[in-house]
Amino acid sequence: MRLPGSHSDLPTGDPYLPGHGDRSWSALHYDLELHYDLEPNRLSAQATIRCRVEDDVERLVLDLAHLEVTKVLVDGKAPAKYSQRDHRLVVRLRSEVPAGSELTLQVKYAGSPRPLVERHHGDAGWEELSDGVIVAGQPHGAPTWFPCNDRPDDKAAYRIAVTTHPDYTVVANGTLTQRRRRGSTTTWVHEQDEPMSTYLATVQIGRYDVREGAGSPPIRCVVPTDAGDGVEAAFGRQPEMMSAFERLFGPYPFPAYAVVVTGDDLEIPLESQSLSTFGRNFLTDDWDHVRLVAHELAHQWFGNTVTLREWRDIWLHEGFACYAEWLWAEVSGGDTADTWARRHHDRLAGLKQDLLLSDPGPELMFDDRVYKRGALTLHALRLSAGDDAFFALLRSWVAEHRGASVTTADFVGWVAEQVSADAAALLDPWLNELELPDLPSAS
After folding, report:
1. Among residues 300, 318, 344, which one ends one of the domains?
2. Number of domains the chain contains
3. Which of 203, 220, 254 finishes a domain?
4. CB count in 10 Å sphere of residue 387
5. Where is each Aminopeptidase N-like N-terminal domain found (predicted)?
6. Is the domain of 22 the same as that of 91?
7. CA distance 142 to 123
8. pLDDT tens for residues 294-334?
9. 368-385 and 337-349 helices cross at what angle (nearest 10)?
10. Do both 26 and 159 map to the same domain?
11. How far is Cα 424 from Cα 402, in angstroms, rounded to an integer?
């Protein structure tokens, strides 16, 4: 895809995120070997990427920002040429490779990682904390720490090995499969077998205690050593949340779940696959914080296993996770979802009506109205379909599309198939008109 009016000959995978992604190839597996020195903020790494080419290609374009590539191999041999520009790594192949072929890329690189700033989305990526590291990938931060095909629908399996100072704990996506101490360093190996988008990949490094939770799936809390009783206040009801969401949405889609609490305050929590990250300012039982614990957990179903194909469909993540906040309030003895819905509907009705939920534009994709109007859309559907049909719909949506990438049209079609054509038609003004529709009456 080339953007209209663009003078670059480099591809774009999604118009909401220019200069990221390449649709001529897809990643199948990332194997990342990272060696990180905290004090000088120095990363030395090798990425081994198994990929499939989707078109006949003479080059592969990867995303990589602020880090210098020192060596590239394609199936064990040097390519014709490689170069870096505009936060991209361009690998010129020795000869044209036909569509459907599989290749293995090896990229050695190093440097001082730092966040990448994009016009509409601010900064994201690898960032130093006061004593550790946080990686905030959404939507454009992945290239700050590994070469990748940075488009949300390019999902792959991952192995992430991080070697660093032994006083620090490393948490990454998936299951910790190995931890080994050698001399003055410790290596932590995590494996994520379930398909994962690049922006959901993460590494968190800090002086942490690991509090193992009971139950299935297990829930770990990785917290500062001085976190105290605030951990229980903030996260003590997560097993109840998990049980409620499994009843409403279907089985939890990954082997385990973790929350990381950084030693620093954070403005908002961070979503990533199989784990969520919170600042230490979230160690309270205030509803405005607890609702976000529910929100991030819900993303494991809506956003992480079932993932948007294009960023324009962000409501399929944020609207569903926002509605999960209201559902948790309802099942945990707080206000009902209908009360929350009508409260937020009244507020949104007083705001400017200039947001199209099905295509909000890159400048508004993380606007709070996407979250709330998306949740209201689901509540309107629930009121129309009834609880039994609505929650059966959510469970079947996740079960059928687990590990896949989806669009708004896919969801509307699923509603028509699983509920009714009338229910699907009800969604149209919520998704495709600027004016906020009225909520149906509660029965």
Report:
1. 300
2. 3
3. 203
4. 11
5. 28-200
6. yes
7. 11
8. 999 999 999 999 999 999 999 999 999 999 999 999 999 99
9. 130
10. yes
11. 21
Share of the chain above pLDDT 70, in %: 98
Round the average pLDDT of the chain to a whole number and report it: 97
Return the structure tokens found at 350: 């007083």
List Cα–Cα distances, 21 to 25, 196, 200, 242, 376, in angstroms. Answer: 9, 15, 15, 34, 32
Helix H segments across 188-314? 230-235, 238-249, 287-298
The pLDDT tens digits for 205-242 are 999 999 998 788 999 999 999 998 899 999 999 999 99
> How much is the CA Rg of the chain, to the nearest whole Å?
22
For tokens 């931890």, name the residue: 179
Is 379 a member of any domain?
A: yes
Contacts for 352 with CB less than 8 Å, ≥ 6 apart: none
Does residue 244 sit in the same domain as residue 96?
Answer: no
Q: Which domain holds residue 158?
A: 1-203
CB 200 within 8 A of CB 271: yes
Asked if residue 268 and residue 245 are part of one domain, the reply reads yes
Rounded CA separation 196/194 (Å): 6
Using CB atoms within 10 A of its CB, is residue 9 exposed (0-12), middle (13-18) or buried (19+)?
exposed
For residues 275 and 373, give the distance between their C-alpha atoms in angstroms, rounded to a whole number.
26
Q: Is 337 exposed, middle or buried (0-12, 13-18, 19+ CB in 10 A)?
A: buried
Residue 40 falls within a domain, yes or no? Answer: yes
214's CB contacts (< 8 A; 6+ apart) are 239
**What stretch of H or E contains 382?**
helix 368-385
